[in-house]
Specification:
The protein is of the alpha+beta class and 200 residues long. 12% of the residues lie in helices and 24% in strands. The protein is built from 2 helices and 12 strands, in the order E-E-E-E-E-E-E-E-E-H-H-E-E-E. The strands form 5 sheets. A 4-stranded antiparallel sheet has the order 1-4-5-9, with no helix packed on it. It has a two-stranded antiparallel ribbon with strand order 2-3. It has a two-stranded antiparallel ribbon with strand order 6-7. The termini are far apart. The mean pLDDT is 76.
Amino acid sequence: MSSKRGEVVLAHLTYPLVVDGVTVAPAGSPERVKVLNVRAASSGDIYGYVDIFFEPFALADGLHLPLVAPSARLTVHSTIGHESTVGVEDTVANILFPPHVLYQVFRRGRNITLGKGTQIRARVGAQIDIVAGKATIATPPPLPVLAATPAAAFTPIPLMTPAHPRLPRTKAGAHAPSPTPSPTPSPSPTASPAATTSPA
């Protein structure tokens, strides 16, 4: 793998960028792609990868359009069919030739190779509008920050149930102390009603 972290790769626009019939960037306009991180393939059949970042694209009017890579990590594309075929081949080889397991452990993965003329797709990170024949960039509004904690849509199941308090341990052969009975409530004294005199 020849790419290094921090390296800048020069690219260009393959097709013109046209919005509402106005060409905001002709074909061949330059673009810079920065390499953020790289990892070479290693033993254990681990593939190498490259993390990329598109710098803002310069339009014809001097504006800069943010670009976003659909997949910021470029790696070897391995299909499910390929993985299953390799798995079957390794299983058969392990049965017929047991030392093949060592080959699997030390087998080196593959590195991604981007040759000259490789096309990398990108999507715009802002909206382009044409006002009076000129391009304007409308950046999306920032996401609102909510101060209140959103309510959960479901009641979570507790991870544990608290245990009941245990009685104190006693020595072997000793009887556990009997629980102390709670005092019996006694009625509170009430005032007797005053004697009434009946009319004579």
